Amino acid sequence: MPMKRRTIILGGGALVAGSGIAFMARSRGGEPISLQSFDWKASDFRAGGTAGINGVLPEPIFRAEPQCIATLAQTLGPCHTNDVPIRSDVTEGVTGLPTRISLRLAEASTCKPVEGADVEIWHADARGVYSGEAATMCNADDAEARATSFLRGRQVSDANGVVSFLTVYPGWYPSRAVHIHLRILLGDRELLVSQLLFDDALSDLVYQGHPDYAARPVRATMNGGDTVFASSDAARFIFDFEKLDTGVLQASYTIGVAA
Question: Signal peptide location in the record (predicted)?
């Protein structure tokens, strides 16, 4: 049976095409397919978080020509916490559009995979709230959020330099574009602290039509106006993504780290 073609939308590769948005899509091998309209609907995706996602999801696809340049470093930020557990599903039952985040670690100079690295992610929930004992701005007046550790987790990179997390699509909060935080350690050495972004058109689809985000007001900050990334840098740090047949969003990115 021939392998079913999966189409990847390259993050940051949006082209204005009349009144809509067009994207360069690529097949499994990485070759261009066509400029196609971004015509998914929010109803094409699952709701309610990761509950009920059974079975094995298909392997994540990364670009045939990966982004092995050194990934831009950022500050740890006020919403980081310590003692984050190793786990693949980081949701702790919170609702949202189920999203698998897959990261591939590569040496920036050689593009060789980095095995055995400790990769940590954290991000806000659909409301724009972080969990844990963090700075007040992260979950002000939310005792339940402060007492939990949702949407935080660690994984160890495999022989291909890959880690994957089951989570939900991040919520937004004032002055920030939609993002996740990440931290990479190798032994006792910190390789990178950074952040990655999501395509603005994808965020519009989620926030304007997905039931788990319907209560939120319209966001004001796009990738080009983010307060952490310079507008000239933002497009380089946007996930590639696809819609899996299960209604799960797959977001993928290759992280280049200095040797």
Answer: none
Do residues 32 and 24 lie in contact, with contact meaning Cβ atoms separated by under 8 Å? Answer: yes
3-state secondary structure of 96: coil
Length of the chain: 259
Do residues 8 and 32 lie in contact, with contact meaning Cβ atoms separated by under 8 Å?
A: no
Q: Where in the chain is the domain with CATH 2.60.130.10?
A: 65-257
Is domain 65-257 classified as CATH 3.40.50.300?
Answer: no
**Comparing C-alpha atoms, which of 83, 69, 166 is closest to residue 123?**
166
Could you tell me the two tokens for 25? Answer: 């899509």
Distance CA 114, CA 72 (A): 17
Q: Which amino acid is at 12?
A: G
Are 94 and 152 a contacting pair, CB within 8 Å? no
Which long-range contacts does 170-173 make (Cβ < 8 Å, 24+ apart)? Answer: 170/123, 170/124, 170/125, 170/198, 171/96, 171/124, 171/125, 171/126, 171/127, 171/128, 171/129, 171/213, 171/216, 172/124, 172/128, 172/203, 172/207, 172/216, 172/219, 172/221, 173/124, 173/128, 173/129
Q: Tell me the per-residue pLDDT of 161-205, one tens digit each, with 9 for 90 and over.
A: 999 999 999 999 999 999 999 999 999 999 999 999 999 999 999
Q: What's residue 64's pLDDT? A: 72
**Tokens of residue 18, six digits:** 């009349």
Mean pLDDT of all residues in 76-94:
95
